[in-house]
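Reopening closed ticket. The problem is back. First fold of the pair:
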Amino acid sequence: MSELQEVQITEDNVNMQDPLKAAELAAKLLAVQEQKHSIETPYGMVTVTIQGSPKPKRPAIVTFHDVGMDHKLCFRSLFENEDMYEIVKNFVVCHIDAPGQEEGAAVYPAGYQYPSLDQLAETIPSVLQYLNFPSIIGIGVGAGAYVLARYTLTHPNTVEGLVLVNIDPNAKGWMDWAAHKLTGLTSSISEMILSHLFSTEELSGNSDIVRQYKTAILNSPILGNNHLYWNSYNSRRDLNLERGGDVTLKCPVMLVVGDQAPHEDAVVECNSKLDPTQTSFLKMADSGGQPQITQPGKLAEAFKYFVQGMGYIPHILDKKRSMG
């Protein structure tokens, strides 16, 4: 494993009142310190991308992406946003790509047995052990949010906090299953994935962002692999979360969903099942199905408050207030 390069960026040479400068430095910090690893797990090889270097007495930020994406498509807009500069500077970030979903992945042969979402959750201990990360703050979207939630239920002592975007904690019911099968008769895999990621209004509006993701998904060279991850998502088990029960997320949780987004009802229901003293619920207006892509600045700001609430880097927000 090659040595991580340390980039010295101090308060003195960063003008935080210049958003463009901050964004450039955040992107530079991520690019210079990026390291890729292929890690063997009980359920196949997993590619992880490390950005930054571990900080003493601070958890790693671990991300897990949604269906039809890799970590870049899912999280690049968020982590390169100017408002994430302080987070990038103060935490090591670990992006996990689900098996076969990473850029340049080989296409799986016909009949390949892809891991279930529960099994994907059990790839995370191998990753953390390999990287020597004792604790994490997880950020997951869609299928990735489910994976991180499942991991947290099984390994609660290693998770300090969770940001779950578009989580659906429920297994598909018979009506959902039947509707999914019928949709599959008339829609391509790409179209079904797109309708999972974006609302009907977004898809018909065809904004630049939606068009970019349509192109990426429709032309994916690993569409067969994407299909396998999609099938695992649609075969997920119920998390069986229960407010006040034995099965619950015991760490601080921030639930995020866009207003009128495809998964709004599921996230609202998830919120009703979690401890209200540990859970914050962020419903983002005008953000559509992928708030981390369409409103990265707002989500970054909320994430900074979330991290501050956990007792880390309290100076960030105080400094920003003094500047305002």
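Second fold of the pair, where the issue appears:
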Amino acid sequence: MIRNRFKLLLYLSLLFITSCISAPRDTSNTCLMFTDNYFWYKFVKNSEKKWGAPVELQMAIIQRESDFDWLAAPEWDKLFKVIPYKRKSSAFGYSQAVNKTWDQFVRETDQPLALRISFNDSVDFIGWYINKSNQILKIPKDDYFKQYIAYHEGWGNFKDYKKSPKVIPYAREV
């Protein structure tokens, strides 16, 4: 009982602290973002050390996926083109991680308190994902184009990315 209350208090504290961090003024300038949010720099560097994922790639993925919006989520499908019905996917937060992959990350890294709205947890997830893409698909960690495609399409759909022409221009931007 005390343990559950502690977890709840911890979750609420993290939510409160995370909500106090404002979105960057200019999401196209990484240096300015790191000046405004020094801890973001520390978190991304920690992820780079832990997983070998380049800082630039992690930041480019977040910019492309959520534009640094901690509450980013996909558009709603609509009934009768008006009534919001359900989200197009379960992607959420800075990393736009879907439920199934996020759950795998939480299990494999033994981080049951990780939150998709936390910048620290999101960059840790992205670093983990880049590392797994390197292991599973043999994509070099510095191949930003293919790493982004693997991130966006998923490990299972990577080989068919040419059938999804929308992702190629996005990957070129990364």
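Update: turned out to be a display glitch only; the data is intact. The CA atoms of residues 24 and 33 lie 6 Å apart. The two ends are 46 Å apart (CA to CA). Please close again.
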